[in-house]
Amino acid sequence: MALTREQMAQRVAQEIQDGSYVNLGIGIPTLVANYIPDGIEVMLQSENGLLGMGRYPYEDEVDADMINAGKETVTAIDGAAIFDSAESFAMIRGGHVDLTVLGAFEVDVNGNIASWMIPGKLIKGMGGAMDLVAGAENIICTMTHASKHGESKLLSQCELPLTGAGCIRRVLTDLAFLEIKDGAFHLLERAPGVSVEDISRLTAGKLIIPDHVPEMQLDA
């Protein structure tokens, strides 16, 4: 069974290291804030100018002025700092973000990412994604494995305009967790109940499958 958006966020959160500075992109990545593992301290950075972003607020905690880059209301942890977007992007461009989690339309076997434009469709635009892929060494891309028409989004070569080239190393889809290296997708884990055959069928780019592919370990 394919992962839900919340399960994808939960699995990505398992990759966050104690003491990290982490930027969460718009969409599924923002949900990661709700699943930070207990016992670790993480500073979540939002490109609109918030360092120390917390989980989504409960109804009685909502502050309309406290928002993330997707204009969703959020909370702030103790010790958070608020500043302008120029300061935020200086932090990103200066390489001070340890991990970036981004959504995408397409990713290919060379680590290229297309996430900002689909010809003929109204898309909000590049936003901060170009700076994030250029300024971060460690990027996890979250996306559905295929379109609603069953067309693979993991390709031999991206067909849409690129956001960045050769910058993506790991991809978490609703079906699998994969590493990109040596011109191929390497299958690391599969979603619970999803077969290797299903993943292979929906992966257009070169896929390397080890002898044993474990299922992801997720909380019930």
TrEMBL record:
Keywords: Transferase. The keyword tRNA processing does not apply. The keyword Membrane does not apply. InterPro entries: 3-oxoacid_CoA-transf_B, CoA_trans_fam_I, CoA_transf_AS, NagB/RpiA_transferase-like. GO terms for molecular function: CoA-transferase activity. SMART domains: CoA_trans. It holds the Pfam family CoA_trans. Gene3D superfamilies: Glutaconate Coenzyme A-transferase (3.40.1080.10). NCBIfam families: pcaJ_scoB_fam. Belongs to the 3-oxoacid CoA-transferase subunit B family. This is CoA transferase subunit B. It comes from Cobetia crustatorum.
